[in-house]
Amino acid sequence: MTTPNPTIPPAPRRDLVIAFLCGGLVAGMVGLSFAAVPFYSWFCRTTGYGGTTQTAAAAPAQISDRIMTVRFDSNVAPGLPWRFEPEQRTIDVKLGQVVTVYYTVTNEAARVTAGQAGYNVSPTTTGAYFTKINCFCFTEQTMKPGEKREMAVVFYVDPKLVENSELDGVRLITLSYTFYPVRVPDQASAESPAPKSGRI
C-alpha cells in the first residue's frame, strides 16, 4: 500500500504567504514612520515651511538698512512647572545684524524636572529668512528644584528677505518658543543638590 506524500494543502500555504507579506508591509510602514520625522525636519529647515527657521555658523556678509521688529514669545506646555519668559519682548534689528537675546527659565517645582523647547516664527513665510547661529531649542534641559537659568538665542534676519516682494509689507516677526515636559533622567532625579542659576 502506497503511503500518501505529506504536503501542505494549497490553502494554508497561500495563507502563510499572505501573512508574510502583511508582516513585511507593517514592518515597512513602521520604518517609514520613523524615517518621516527626520525627513520632515530636514524639509522644514531647508524651506522654512511652517515657520521653521534656518541655521548658520556665521554672520552674513552684508547688513541692510531695512529695520525689522522681532517680537519674542514664550509658552510652557501643561505638565511642566516652569516660568519661562524673554528678558525683552521686542527688539528692532537691521537685516543681517547679528543679535543675542536671552530667555529666563525657572523650575518652580520642589523636584527635578526636564523640558525641551520647540519653536517657530510668524508670519510663517519669514521662516526661510530667520537664521539662528546659536539656540537652546531641541536641547533637553534638566532643572533642579528652584533653579533659574538664562538661555541665549543668537540670530539674524537674512538680508535676502528684501528680494521677496511678497514680504515688502512685513515689519514684525514673532519668534515663539514652547517648552514641553520630557522624562527626567534617572541619575538627575536621584540627585538633589542645591539650586543654582547661570547663563547657558
* Helix segment tally: 2
Q: Mean pLDDT score, rounded?
A: 80
The number of E-state strands comes to 11
Largest sheet: 6 strands, mixed
Strand and helix order: HEEEEEEEEEEHE
Assign an overall shape.
Answer: flat
CATH level 1 class label of the largest domain: Mainly Beta
> CATH topology of the largest domain, what is it called?
Ctag/Cox11 (Pfam 04442)
Summarize the SSE layout with pairings.
Elements: H1 10-47, E1 54-55, E2 67-76, E3 82-86, E4 90-94, E5 99-107, E6 113-122, E7 130-134, E8 141-143, E9 148-157, E10 172-181, H2 186-190, E11 197-199
Parallel strand pairs: 1-7, 2-10, 9-11
Antiparallel strand pairs: 2-4, 3-5, 5-9, 6-8, 6-10, 7-9
Question: How would you concisely characterize the structure shown here?
Answer:
22% of the residues lie in helices and 36% in strands.
Labels describing this entry:
six-stranded mixed beta sheet; Ctag/Cox11 (Pfam 04442); 2 domains; alpha/beta; five-stranded mixed beta sheet; 200 residues
